[in-house]
């Protein structure tokens, strides 16, 4: 199976200039090809990738207004047109229902201030010692945080909005064998407590409120700055660096959490959360968006394929995990978010809201795994009252 390995790189000032030219040329080729397709009348056949490459690269180089395309390697320019074809394929397959997941939108024009990238195939790069050689750019200093497991088939040069540069390699990896410590674990995702495990462990969210205040203050200054001025550009870069730091903290937390969950458990059970609907809550939208619940699910599913005998199960979002006692199975109904602990009068157990939900998530995942009904995994009780005993503000 294929996997991506990303490394930080440190190009020289001259190489940064050449990379800026490369990113600009790839962006122009993409935009020219997209403009050509949009100009085609409805009902007429679209050109193929080969025809688009001839129009926006080969013939464009002969035009004085596009002659500077000859100053960069042709490999990433061809890949830019190929990527546009892939974007259109994803769009049409998403509309027809062949492509699973979120709906892919129609390709859009690329902007100069957004994240920039250029992809090289094996014809355009090679690894020479501790550095990576790129065609018409030279050997770029690379920070090898870990060795590559195999020979890469391609590399993508990335410049993020904060001005950092990265290499992203596509390599072939083989699944490894790791003995699990536990049969499985249920995970209840939250805001203040990022993850509550069915074992009773709680993983707290790292505090980034100081960075958040700094970002919001910077954006207020940016709104008052004169457009096109150096001060405004300096403010924009400062905000981007702070946002990148905040994103790195969240990504590091999620990566470490998902790696531990997949490595130590043979089955990881998650909820199919309706994140798109939850972010409509104005009070919790920012916190939910920054928690990265969907990222955690994606990371778990990807890492489960890299270790043998690992499985990630996702239960239905309609499963009443917070409304049922995990000990006796009595359903007490929907609770307010401020209620953090519940006393069940049927069995006398005082349940922590999140721990109780994670245990129910685990039970539901194992029931689906064995093809059983949830009632056969968890006992049912008679109609007795259930009392909320403890309240805590979120």
Features of the shown structure:
single chain, 394 residues, seven-stranded antiparallel β-sheet, elongated
How is this structure best described in words?
- This protein is α+β, with helices and mostly antiparallel strands.
- It has three domains: 2-172, no CATH class; 182-313, no CATH class; 319-394, no CATH class.
- The chain is 39% helix and 22% strand.
- The protein has a seven-stranded antiparallel sheet with strand order 2-6-7-1-5-4-3.
- Helix 4 (209-224) runs antiparallel to helix 5 and helix 5 crosses helix 8 (293-304).
- The longest helix has 35 residues, at 230-264.
- The protein is elongated and about 85 Å long.
- Mean pLDDT is 88; it is low at 373-394.
Put simply, the count of helices is 10
Q: How would you describe the shape?
A: elongated
| H-E order | EHHHEEEEEEEEEHHEHHHEEEHHE
Strand content: 15-25%
Mean pLDDT: 88
From the alpha-carbon coordinates, what is the Rg to the nearest angstrom?
Answer: 26 Å
Whole-number count of domains: 3
Cross-sheet strand order for the largest sheet: 2-6-7-1-5-4-3
Number of strand segments? 15
The N- to C-terminal Cα distance equals 42 Å
Major β-sheet annotation: 7 strands, antiparallel
DSSP helix fraction: 25-40%
- Regions with pLDDT < 50 over 5+ consecutive residues? 373-394
Q: What class, by secondary structure content?
A: alpha+beta
Topology summary:
Layout: E1 2-10, H1 13-39, H2 49-58, H3 74-96, E2 116-121, E3 125-128, E4 131-134, E5 138-143, E6 154-159, E7 165-172, E8 182-189, E9 193-197, E10 202-204, H4 209-224, H5 230-264, E11 265-271, H6 275-278, H7 285-291, H8 293-304, E12 311-315, E13 339-344, E14 350-352, H9 353-369, H10 374-377, E15 386-391
Parallel strand pairs: 8-11, 11-12
Antiparallel strand pairs: 1-5, 1-7, 2-6, 3-4, 4-5, 6-7, 8-9, 9-10, 13-14, 13-15
Helix pairs in contact: 1-3, 2-3, 4-5, 5-8
